[in-house]
Specification:
The protein contains 25 helices and 39 strands. The two termini are 44 Å apart. Helix 1 packs parallel to helix 7. A hairpin with a 4-residue loop joins strand 13 and strand 14. The longest helix has 18 residues. The strands form 11 sheets. A 5-stranded parallel beta sheet has the order 3-2-1-7-19, with helices on one face. A 5-stranded parallel beta sheet has the order 9-16-10-11-12, covered by helices on one side.
């Protein structure tokens, strides 16, 4: 920054995804500090991922949708004003008046006001039970109305486009029965044609949606409970709430009031440089009508933001046009549309593969000589999208029918020219990606870091993998330097050969003496394939610190003790024992998020004494230290709760006792909710079970951590026996095939075919291994024995629980605590903290 020249001021009106991208682009390029930025955000939250709005349902955590860097911490040239909007623009004075009464002078004004939901003037549209689907606040309101309506109540969505189906999915996740009303004769009319719409309607109907196409909404009237929705065909729907998702309109009122030129159908008119009719005012994103055309997708919005940042720094960038291609998964159904999907180009021909039995629809639109790809539609299976979309406008590498036929030609990455756009969100070409690979980006994270490809919607990641393979980059599957095999391959070797020792395995299939990667990994495999105690014989030396002492190591060298409480249940006598133990040994007591009690501050030599008391009270190890089942969380369910539909506690106890001690590639957490209100937060767990009126819905692959994931539906309306059978198969398949320290969410995403493939394996037994998986789980259940009870009966195992081998009676003098405050906390006495990697958390 040049300290002698004051920076100019850019005022940004709107802090959505596009507004945030503009600020990021300007600040990253403005190395001399030419501009200071003031952002007016009407919402109280900084920029978040509006495209992923549906993922807010269930977690209800706004921070999970926050865009990286959206608060600009430490950047003195950016001022973010939350909860303030722009009220008026004085173009002559170049000033903006805010909703708080402040007057801001600007050198450049960037309008990023986005769009607003269109609500058709249906009588009753302003009823308290009517909502729109646009912001987190909207979803909070819908959630409250859904809870008031009760599980199973009807929710009507007016609009069957992209956002309408997302809203319907949100209602379904809230436990409502969604009805979708679409005036057009098919769902998603902008993206798919009649054939694709027919398949889409059938697929979503099978998932529980009620679809009304070719009709409008005539009126909405108050009823005893909720509203009565009357359609144009005289159908009457008794509903708890209504969500309008009938399209959006550009938010251009502030521009109209300021006398800026707007388009006949709305939108702030700009030139290709995104400059409005006032040379000091720019418009970006959905509110901008670039040469009269508004673009409603985030990718062209990002492009407009980049261009204005370039222009303010002296560049001459122009809007290159927009790729309006879309690929998404709605309610688990793949839908993709690209190029001239509806074949409006003169002379265009269509090649269609409509497989009603499989529920797939594929159409390619080609030129009149069938040599150039113009566009296409994919419904039910969109795996070919990443390879086909970059070829729009280019010669086809094979016959059109062969490219969409299951038995036809596979389109490789080598068929794409270097200037083909691979990542449409961030405008990254194949050449740029190949260049990054040539310069050393040897994996997906490396490509993302160098090029930004795959960092937005992620739809191009499969093609990134193909480009890596095409470039000759060999991604090693070796577990470590001692084993060339992957964890899954070592699991199969152990299972087939019957080898039961690390030394035997490394002698025959590895090299060297092993390390802190392969030793605990093999220890976990051996534990997963038998019921031997993990401290028996040679296995004891393979364990990390936590498993070595069957307790979680804490930062001051003490350990925590966590007895199991299946489903959160505990007797009064057991609680009294826990209290007595905590008092006698001076332990800090903490109730955990997994519905059990954690006792902190135990020295290693105290562990057997503590566990003797707990085991005698009928308690057992909670395995908080192991890569294994941790907890099965539950609500009180139908036993106590007036909303409960099934006995969630009973099911949670059954599952926890079934899978306790089950060793796996990473920790496992389960939960059971007694109704769709989801008090047990089941969709945030590796395996989540949610009660319905007719049984159980089974969700899999939910994880917390740095990149939290919602669990996705594997199967619905299951009876108890089928539910347990499917969980057995899922967990054992995961244990056999996942990589070291790979949780269920990334494991599922890495599987070719993802959740659809899992459904085939687990529910349909497509691999023919269901009986084997069930037998393996049955063997685990039959062979289970509490690890701490076994230690207390074995003098050799007990001998390891000492602070000093050569002085077993002495306590560690470095351990001390500060009890001056309300909480007992460890004092480190200048000792280094235990590295996180060894804590096994």
């Amino acid at each position: 920054m040049n300290p002698t020249v004051a920076p100019k001021t850019a005022v940004v009106v709107g802090h959505g995804m596009v507004g945030h991208r503009f600020v990021e682009a300007l600040r990253s390029r403005d190395t001399e500090g030419q501009w200071q930025v003031i952002i007016l955000s009407e919402e109280q939250l900084p920029a978040y991922d509006r495209v992923g709005l549906s993922s807010y349902v269930g977690a209800w955590d706004p921070s999970a949708l926050a865009l990286p860097g959206n608060e600009y911490a430490g950047d003195e040239l950016v001022e973010l004003r939350l909860g303030q909007s722009a009220e008026s623009i004085d173009r002559a004075a170049r000033k903006v008046t805010t909703s708080s009464g402040d007057i801001l002078a600007y050198d450049a004004l960037v309008l990023a006001t986005g769009s607003y939901p269109f609500v058709p003037p249906v009588p009753g549209h302003d009823s308290p039970e009517c909502f729109v689907y646009r912001t987190l606040d909207d979803l909070d309101g819908i959630r409250a109305a859904a809870e008031a309506a009760g599980p199973g109540a009807v929710g009507v969505v007016v609009g069957g486009g992209l956002l309408g189906l997302e809203a319907a999915n949100a209602l379904r996740l809230l436990g409502l029965t969604p009805h979708v009303v679409e005036y057009n004769t098919r769902l998603m009319p902008a993206q798919v044609d009649e054939g694709g719409g027919a398949i889409l309607e059938r697929l979503v109907t099978d998932l529980g949606l009620h679809v009304h196409t070719g009709v409008g909404t005539s009126s909405i009237e108050a009823a005893d409970k909720g509203v009565k929705v009357t359609l144009s065909d005289e159908t009457v729907i008794d509903a708890g709430l209504v969500v309008f998702s009938a399209g959006v309109r550009p938010r251009d009122q502030i521009a109209r009031d300021a006398g800026l030129e707007v388009g006949p159908r709305g939108g702030i008119v700009t030139d290709l440089g995104l400059q409005t009719s006032d040379p000091n005012i720019w418009a970006i994103g959905e509110c901008a009508a670039v040469e009269g055309v508004c673009y409603g997708l985030v990718a062209p919005g990002y492009t407009t933001a980049e261009i204005v940042a370039d222009r303010l720094l002296g560049g001459a960038g122009e809007f290159p046009g927009a790729d309006m291609s879309t690929k998404l998964k709605l309610l688990g159904v793949d839908v993709a549309s690209f190029g001239d999907a509806h074949g409006v180009t003169e002379g265009a021909l269509s090649v269609v593969l409509h497989d009603a039995a499989k529920g797939t629809y594929a159409k390619l639109v080609v030129s009149d000589d069938a040599k150039t790809l113009l566009g296409g539609i994919l419904v039910g299976d969109a795996t070919a999208y990443s390879a086909l979309r970059p070829l729009v406008g280019r010669p086809l590498p094979a016959e059109p029918a062969a490219l969409i036929s299951p038995a036809g030609a596979e389109l490789g990455a080598d068929a794409l020219p270097d200037d083909a756009q691979i990542c449409s969100c961030n405008n990254v070409s194949k050449g740029a990606i190949c260049g990054a690979i040539a310069e050393g980006a040897c994996d997906i994270p490396g490509i993302k870091s160098c090029t930004s490809a795959g960092t937005s919607c992620g739809g191009c990641v499969p093609m990134l993998k193909k480009l890596l393979e095409q470039s000759g980059v060999e991604m090693s599957k070796a577990l470590c330097e001692h084993f060339e095999q992957s964890r899954a391959e070592l699991f199969q070797i152990v299972q087939v050969t019957g080898i039961r020792t690390f030394s035997g395995l490394i002698t025959k299939y590895g090299k060297g003496t092993g390390c802190d990667i392969c030793k605990p990994t093999v220890a976990s495999i051996l534990a997963s394939t038998s019921s031997d105690h993990i401290l028996d014989g040679e296995q004891a030396g393979l364990q990390d610190t936590n498993d070595h002492f069957l307790a979680n190591l804490q930062k001051n060298g003490t350990y925590s003790v966590v007895p199991r409480m299946p489903g959160g249940e505990v007797t009064a006598e057991q609680l009294i024992t826990i209290g007595e133990v905590a008092k006698e040994f001076g332990l800090y007591v903490k109730v955990t998020g997994g519905q059990r009690i954690d006792l902190f501050g135990a020295r290693v030599e105290q562990l057997p004494l503590i566990w003797k008391r707990l085991v005698d009270a009928g308690m057992e190890s909670g395995h908080a230290y192991g890569k294994s089942l941790r907890t099965v969380k539950s609500c009180v369910g139908s036993t106590w709760c007036r909303y409960g539909q099934q006995d969630s506690v009973g099911m949670a106890v059954l599952l926890e006792k079934r899978y306790r001690g089950l060793r796996s590639p990473h920790k496992l957490k389960l939960a059971v909710s007694g109704c769709a209100r989801e008090c047990a937060e089941a969709r945030g767990k590796d395996v989540g079970v949610i009660a319905t009126e007719n049984g159980w819905n089974l969700y899999v692959g939910g994880n917390g951590g740095l990149t939290p994931k919602h669990a996705v539906l594997l199967a619905g309306e299951l009876d108890d026996e089928t539910l347990i059978k499917y969980i057995d198969r899922y967990l054992m398949f995961y244990i056999r095939t996942a990589d070291r320290l790979q949780r269920t969410a990334p494991w599922q995403e890495a599987l070719e075919g993802g959740i659809d493939y899992l459904k085939q394996v687990v529910c349909e037994d497509s691999l023919g291994i269901a009986e084997d998986l069930e037998a393996a789980m049955a063997q685990h259940v039959a062979g289970y024995r509490d690890e701490w009870a076994a230690v207390l009966e074995d003098e050799e195992k007990l001998s390891r629980f000492v602070s000093f081998v050569n002085a077993p009676e002495e306590a560690d003098p470095t351990i001390s605590f500060d009890e001056s405050g309300e909480r007992k906390v460890p004092v480190l006495l200048g000792l280094p903290e235990v590295p996180v990697a060894t804590q096994g958390k």
